[in-house]
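Late entry, flavin-adenine dinucleotide complex.
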Amino acid sequence: MTSPVPFVQSPPQLGNQYSDDAFLRSWLRRKLPPEVLREVESHFDAMGQLAGGELYELQLQDRLHEPVLTQWDAWGNRVDRIEVTPLWKRAADIAAREGLVAIPYERKHGHYSRIHQFALAYLFHPSSDVYTCPLAMTDGAARTLMVGGNAALVDRAIPHLTSRDPAQAWTSGQWMTESTGGSDVGRSLSTARRDDEGRWRLHGKKWFTSAITSQMALTLARPEGNLPGGSGLAMFYVETHDAAGALNHIRIERLKDKLGTRKVPTAELVLDGSIAELVSEPCNGTRHIEPMLVVTRTWNSVTSAAFMRRGVALAKSYAAQRSAFGASLAQLPLHADTLAGLEVETRAAFLLAFELVELLGRLEANEISDSERALLRILTPIAKLITAKQAVAVMSETIEAFGGAGYVEDTGLPLLLRDAQVLPIWEGTTNVLALDAVLRGDFVSALAALTDRFVQLHSKLQQQPLIDQMQLAIDALDQVRQWQVRNRDAAALQAGARRAALSVGRAWQLMLLIEHAHWSAEHDNDASAAAAAMRFAATPINLLADLSPDDSLELLR
Ligand SMILES: Cc1cc2nc3c(=O)[nH]c(=O)nc-3n(C[C@H](O)[C@H](O)[C@H](O)COP(=O)(O)OP(=O)(O)OC[C@H]3O[C@@H](n4cnc5c(N)ncnc54)[C@H](O)[C@@H]3O)c2cc1C
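Prediction complete; structure with ligand written out below:
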């Protein structure tokens, strides 16, 4: 008797991540003028090819590599050198050459430049082992320096931060979090004092510093004599190395041993008299560093959607190849229903993230109206918080869509879930962002501007299902408004802020799906756009509940 031929399952395949993504291409056709799209499309195509080909292969081969910190050389000198992984080196080269940070500063296509940049980043991110972390901070630092208006620092750093030459390109860190708190940075203990030569010297310990291989960082420290709290902190510019290549009085204590983002070297570091320059005034640092957060939260939103797209692309490919009960998984109605749910959450996250991208582009090109400015203000925290939560949920479901294989490390799949789990934590946790969105005085006016936008779209719609779905989104916003009016008590407002922010986010996503379906019906006749709106409308949009903060305390007692 011959033994049966062993069964070997073929793995999921990735193709060109641009040409395979019909939804992305449709959205770009809708948003970019044809002449702009013609000019940039070859870049998208090349990045899509890299992401689904060479970079993806390298990522799988590179799976076990991690950054290595060498603190001492053979002769006992403290060196604190970090060697990053092979994929990170390749990613750094590609990022500079493709202008992943440079594009919005070159601003060749006006406010569309942000769309150009972030569509490339969206394609690049899932195959980059989160190299987008230093890119986000670099972009944020460039924007913050430009807004800060310190001409000497702009002249010194911007040409490097936005260089397309890998030998000249710098990345930047953002050193804010201390062990006293990342959310409440006003508690930071780092100090700044002038030395005998009048230079600022920083002392303190920064507890989470990613991109520690960067050439510079923006950081916060309290000039001696300043008041406690965030307003007493000042924003400083620090170069990590001196001209001879020695560390700028910085000690890297250790690299964090993290759940995910393990290719990102995240360090604890001590500033032991690091020479720094004040970016603007010697106080109000938490306010001055805000432009950085607007940019990094936009990157977070785009990379959340990008992770989701990768999960869905892999799960769809696998579903076509894997069989069960006499059919491919793709043909099993419940598996297809499950994947369709992931596809719709991915589109919703994409649309909200790129709504933020568009508004950021308009802001930078000085083409933003007052109501758009109000929308940008609340969208920044809301897009970040909701897309990050969606990414974790979709990555978890992606793992399950592979069955046991999804749980096995050398498929490269578990990494997706672990990496996605950082998205709701860094750049502001869900709760902190929800409070930022909902508790500020301008929330009410932003909600009014958003309602206007919803009502305008409603008046243009002609197909009944879309009209009904749009009414659902309008009603959800109205319920948030009523909730806010009803709850004047600070504790109740805080306790419900996450539910309120998520409700606004889901209503906004529904509106964007409807808007795209409306456009698609007239321009590319893609039935999936209306199906996406329909399916999303069937999920909970309004998440509000009148729950008592006292009951929460009771439950925790
Ligand atoms: C991989 C990784 C890399 C990082 N890289 C960097 C970096 O490069 N630079 C940098 O500066 N930081 C970095 N961070 C730090 C990150 O920004 C902080 O961890 C984050 O802001 C949260 O701060 P915390 O850890 O001090 O948590 P805490 O602020 O202690 O929060 C703990 C919990 O309390 C909740 N909470 C806090 N305040 C409130 C409130 N008012 N109401 C309700 N809930 C609240 C939070 O939502 C959270 O769930 C990194 C973190 C990670 C995981």
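The CA atoms of residues 444 and 485 lie 10 Å apart. Will revisit in the morning.
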